[in-house]
């Protein structure tokens, strides 16, 4: 990511007032929120900011990384839903447990 774009994104992130800490590492924005429930609001806000000020063809992928969240700016066609550290097997196991009444 270009340094001037990184700077714009960090300024935007700081201006939201919802973050404790934010930094860009290897093109990924890592954010720790005061309230983790702000993660989706922030993803949508970041996407809208990027569409207006950087490139109209923008999507934002987000991942849970421990107590932080990682955001990647991608082309809109490559945008996907939230990714967490839970594996698919974990979701399947939970569903089976629910069906068996555990």
SSE arrangement:
Elements: H1 3-16, E1 19-25, E2 28-33, H2 39-53, E3 59-65, E4 68-74, H3 88-99
Antiparallel strand pairs: 1-2, 2-4, 3-4
Helix pairs in contact: 1-2
Give your account of this protein's structure.
This protein is α+β, with helices and mostly antiparallel strands. It has one domain. 40% of the residues lie in helices and 26% in strands. It contains three helices and four strands; from the N terminus they run H-E-E-H-E-E-H. The protein has a four-stranded antiparallel beta sheet with strand order 1-2-4-3, with helices on one face. A hairpin with a 2-residue loop joins strand 3 (59-65) and strand 4. Helix 1 packs across helix 2 (39-53). Residues 87-91 have low confidence and may be disordered.
How many H/I helices? 3
- The overall average pLDDT, rounded, is 86
Q: Main β-sheet: number of strands, strand sense, barrel status? A: 4 strands, antiparallel
Radius of gyration: 16 Å
Termini separation: 47 Å
Beta-strand share of residues: 25-35%
Unreliable spans are: 87-91
Structural class: alpha+beta
Tell me how many strands there are.
4
Overall 3D form = globular
Run of helices and strands? HEEHEEH
Number of domains: 1
Q: Indicate the percent of residues in helices.
A: 40-55%
Going across the major beta sheet, what is the strand order?
Answer: 1-2-4-3
